[in-house]
Amino acid sequence: MKECIELITQRRSITFFDPNREVHDDLTKEILEISATAPSGYNIQPWEVIVVKSKDKKKLLRDICYGQQKVEDASANIVLVANTHAGFEHVDRILQSWEELGYISSDAKESLKSQILTGWQDPQKAFRKAVRDTALFGMNIMITARAFGLETHPMEGYDEARLKKFLNIEEHKVVPMIIAIGYKDHSRELLPRAYRFSFEEFGKII
Ligand SMILES: Cc1cc2nc3c(=O)[nH]c(=O)nc-3n(C[C@H](O)[C@H](O)[C@H](O)COP(=O)(O)O)c2cc1C
Fold it and tell me: Is residue 48 one of the residues assigned to a domain?
């Protein structure tokens, strides 16, 4: 329990990565699969990732990220992609799994399908759903990485149009954030964690 809380509270956005330490692909995949146990509306899982790890591609990505050095120093950069068509593309597989696991009967599938798809028909709602679920997946990545001794840095500072062109991301997909991942450079110190609002400032219990 204490460990779990420390994984959350001691997470920082790491500016200094050790440029000489690589994260093995198997570990990256393991972290991503663990993170993909994140919840999503109707279990649609609208996220995709592109892991940018080659030196050449990281250099190009750094330029797209307005020169952020951590992009190049990190072992890799996980580009999170939220698919606003995921409802339509994933619904059959999800319903199939629910039927196999006994959540629903075969007869219930069609009406449930149209209920699920109603939420994905309105582009604004689809955008919100895709981005919301993908962000939950992203938070899991940041915490899970720490459990394996790695650190991360989420980023929204990039030119999305250039990024989409660079990675051939289709028009109906959006990039809510990029997460740099790697080992911290222990010779560099981060500044202390900045101010956080207290419960009294951001919440109420009614
Ligand atoms: C979605 C998102 C986008 C962010 N984008 C950037 C970024 O482009 N560049 C940057 O230096 N920090 C970025 N940050 C990091 C925040 O500045 C950082 O999380 C915040 O200052 C709190 O610091 P901490 O994460 O170390 O607690 C981003 C954070 C989030 C969650």
Answer: yes
Instruction: Tell me, yes or no, whether 63 lies in a domain.
Output: yes
73 near 182, Cβ under 8 Å? yes
Determine the structural domain holding residue 79 and report its residue range: 33-88+123-180
**CA dist 57 to 8, 62, 68, 77, Å?**
30, 9, 14, 10
pLDDT tens column, 155-200 = 999 999 999 999 999 999 999 999 999 999 999 999 999 999 999 9
Answer yes or no: is 62 within a domain: yes
pLDDT digits (tens, 9 = 90+) for 91-116: 999 999 999 999 999 999 999 999 99
Q: Beginning with the edge strand found earlier in the chain, give each strand of the sheet holding 47-52 in spatial order.
A: 47-52, 76-83, 173-182, 151-155
How high is the pLDDT of residue 74?
98
Quick one: what percent of the chain has pLDDT higher than 70?
100
Among 6, 13, 196, which residue has the most ligand 1 atoms within 8 Å of its CB, making it the best to mutate? 13
Tell the residue nearest (CA) to atom 18 of ligand 1.
Answer: 13
Domain count along the chain? 1
Contacts of 120 (CB under 8 A, 6+ apart): 84, 85, 86, 87, 88, 126, 129
